[in-house]
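Need tokens for this chain, all 121 residues.
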Amino acid sequence: ALGIPGELEGSVAAHSVGRIARALPFVTARKAQAPDGVTVVFNITGTSGCVVSVAVEGGRGKELDAVPDSPTVTITTDVETFARLGCGRWDPAEVLSSGKITVSRDTALGNNIVNQMNIMI
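Here are the structure tokens for all 121 residues:
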């Protein structure tokens, strides 16, 4: 309401990022309907950020233990943008056009994933 971002560092921020990150396999496979064989790497930058790799197999997304050598899509953003997209606070189209998020390789699929990142009801 005040336009001031909350805590973007520390254990609370890391917990929040982790909560949203756990939904990325679902977002990729079910919401964005990525086809089997797709791999996506999400690079969330900042001290509370992380790297999450997702693969789609049998119509289901699963988190990978390692980053694939040649992912289908790479999505890079900072903690604030990631959290605001995941919680439905920012419009994905505006974020994509602003440069706050970078999609590389299969940009059409990556943009679709970004458009489906809101996991909050």
